[in-house]
Design a protein that fits this description.
This protein is of the alpha+beta class. The protein is built from 5 helices and 10 strands, in the order αββββββββααββαα. A hairpin with a 2-residue loop joins strand 2 and strand 3. It comes from Caenorhabditis elegans. This is Metallo-beta-lactamase domain-containing protein.
Length: about 200
């Protein structure tokens, strides 16, 4: 009986893995992308319900918090010392803790027709956080609500569009920037950058 159960479980696992790979491949194909074309993977936050199948990217750099994982090799990145890391001329990864201590957000600049897009995970779970000041994640727990709000404001000030963790992508409206204090926030950032 145990052997039959193990064999069935092994078959089920193999089927699930193949179906996940097929779903992922089909989803990427709709965007004319293959697994081989993906240079790196960014984990915006470590919620088991939001991530999985990292094994499909075993030989790709996987960024989580301030570390980079490739297979079993782990390396600290400049995110240990700096607030952001450039992945390319148009892609940056920012430390944006709040929902968890290890949240990351990805800024993609110069996206045709959109400007700068931010992929933020649960830092900004939906547009409701900005439009109604209602955080749909509050019941699941938030590591630090004040820091989350600060980092959400920073992203609002830097992005034209936001891809939230639990909603449709949305345009950053002028009143969102006003509520976030973007003029003051970006002026402070400019002064800090001049001092460095």
């Amino acid at each position: 009986m145990d052997n039959a159960f193990y064999h069935q479980r092994q078959e089920n696992s193999r089927w699930i893995l193949q179906s996940h790979l097929l779903l992922l491949s089909n989803g990427l194909a709709k965007e004319s992308v293959t697994l081989d074309q993906i240079d790196s993977v960014v984990i915006t936050h470590a919620s088991p319900g939001h991530m999985g199948n990292m094994n499909f990217f075993a030989q790709k750099p996987i960024l989580y918090h301030s570390m980079e994982y490739i297979g079993r090799h782990v390396t600290p990145t400049e995110l240990k010392e700096r607030p952001y890391r450039k992945l390319s001329g148009n892609v940056e990864v920012w430390k944006t803790p709040g929902h968890t201590q290890h949240d990351l957000s990805v800024l993609v600049h110069n996206v045709a027709g959109y400007g700068t897009m931010a992929i933020v995970g649960d830092l900004i779970p939906s547009e409701h956080l900005l439009s109604e000041k209602r955080d749909v994640m509050i019941e699941e727990g938030v590591w630090d609500n004040a820091i989350k709000r600060q980092n959400a404001n920073l992203i609002v000030c830097m992005a034209d569009w936001i891809v939230p963790g639990h909603g449709q992508p949305f345009r950053v409206l002028p009143n969102y920037r006003q509520k976030a204090g973007c003029t003051r926030l970006l002026a402070q950032r400019h002064l800090l950058n001049q001092a460095v």
